[in-house]
Amino acid sequence: MISKTMKRFNKRKKGSDLGEYDPLTQADSEDETEDDDLVLNYPRNGLNPAVADLRGEEELDEEEELREGAGHEVGPGRSQGGAAEEKAARVRGAMRSAAFLLPLSCAALLVLLCAFLIPCPQGALLQMQWERELGDTAGVTSPPIALWDVDGDGLEDVLIAVTNISNDSQPMSAQSKELSVWALGGGGGQMLWRKSLREPLISVQCGLQTGSSDPLHSSACVLISSGHMIAINASTGWTLWTTAVGHVVSHAVLLPDLQGDAFPDLLIATLPEDKVSDLALVLISGRSGALIGRPVNFNLTAQGKLIGPLLHETQTGAYYVMFGLGTVEAVSLSLIYSRATGQTAASRVRLKDPTWERLRKSNSSSLIHISSVSDPVDFLLSLVVGSCQRLRNLDGVSALNCSRSDWIVLSNSSRRLSVLRASDTRPIWSLSLASIHTCPAAGHFNDDGVPDLLVHQSANGVRKVQIMDGARGRSLWEAEFVCPRLAVEDSSVLTASGQSVFLFWAGDPLAQPQNVSKVAEPVLRKLFLLHPNYPTILLELSSTTDTVLSAAVSYQAQQKDASYISVSSRPSSGRALGAQVLQTLSLRAAAADARILRLTDADKPSSFQLRKFFRRLAFRQ
């Protein structure tokens, strides 16, 4: 030990001797060592080389001491101090681990709580499976109905005109009627609001722009009775404006802005006050409900069922209104505006289409004849996917889709169904059919992009259901059923794949064509669903003994589902009048549990495969 101490002392002395300052030699060597210092004297790990060498020597000495002291007993104080430091390090590591894992565990627990322990809202589970009694009503009268998201929850709600009759034990003349319009929530049928009326409604249409920046108050519904138009806030039912417009005979048509107030305007058809003309068209401000000018009267060439009115925008951007009585006539919107106000219409409304103007047979006539007088027309519809009721909404999207499409023309007198080309009003195709009492439903059965038509014909107790190719007029699918004795509009619902499913009422399918003069009326009316992927399969979604009066389809975008909404008359024994019932049916749930009917003897696909397919069915608007 003594020898080691002496060795370290000699080294330090030698180092101190070398480090003494000699003014004679130091001056001579400064210039020679300056360059070497610039190259060699760089810091290593932040230390001066001399310091690093000194520390290296000390570390070597300590290692030698440890080797020499191996096997010797270490003092108890030093052993206890090292153990304490090691224990403290372990505690600090555990605390750091706990500080990291504790927030992570809390976050995971919160996710599990939200996912599994908090129950889903009951409205989301039962949103399309509910029923609501409308009371004792006028029996077989189909009430006006509209679909619109009233409360802003993403579900389309139901607005329906209700006529309750009291004192039903008295004669009909002594019975009192309570008229109102109800807004029922799409998520359970709860009453959102109710508005009393003085006159029966002939139309309920929603989607009119109000100009409010609040989404809940940005749209209005228009209630049309025989003598008045009432605009109400769709969310609250509060009246926005009321207008007396004479004897109204049509629904409202959405027009472009005619007055430059940034609000779309409206058009309706009325019976003329002079009782000489056949029909009058009236312009109404969408902002205030005030009449724009005066009614414009027309003398028509034929008499029959009211056609339209419909708005059409040509390829050049010109606007024409299509209407008639048993015929289809067209008149320029700019001409209607100038006759009503005595002023020139705005530039975008003033346009006229040269192709359409050439169809005018006389320069003195303001009307353009689209159909022949000898072939009375019963229906004029836009060839657009969706129900007739939905296409009458007053929102801009529905109006735009309808105003630029081709048309479906149906004549029961000649028993002909035609599709007219909008560019030149000429028929694309035409075919003969038996009696049709409801408008066809347009949807996509094949993949050519042109809407196809679901039509049904009834004769001798047999209902023949067909899907006609919208592009060529040929039959794509057909089957025969026992006639259900219902005149309910058929429906089509667009799926996420771009195809449509088709819904129709009928009795039991007939395996072979029937030549009998009459088939007995069925006890059960059945709602069938047809999917283009499985043309030999029908799903029986529902069956009832009630008399179905009207039907519509609502959409739930978030759930990718749709509801079939029907209004039925449910007769009571011993009573002349029956109670009307509003029912909703989830299409996805009903399709997954429906009874499967095979139109052929083929056993493929299996029932398991079919149910798996329909459980995954998604719908879109």
UniProtKB/TrEMBL annotation:
Annotated Acidic residues bias: 28-38, 56-66
Ranges that cross the membrane: 98-118
Compartments in which it is found: Membrane
Classification via InterPro entries: Beta-prop_FAM234A_B, FAM234, Quinoprotein_ADH-like_sf, WD40/YVTN_repeat-like_dom_sf
Biased composition (Basic residues): 1-14
Record flagged with keyword Hydrolase: no
Keyword Membrane applies: yes
Domain spans labelled FAM234A/B beta-propeller: 141-620
Top-level lineage group: Eukaryota
Keywords tagged on the record: Membrane, Transmembrane, Transmembrane helix
Topology relative to the membrane: Single-pass membrane protein
Stretches the record annotates as Disordered: 1-86
Classification via Pfam families: Beta-prop_FAM234A_B
Cellular-component GO terms for this entry: membrane
Family named by the database record: Belongs to the FAM234 family.
Protein name: FAM234A/B beta-propeller domain-containing protein
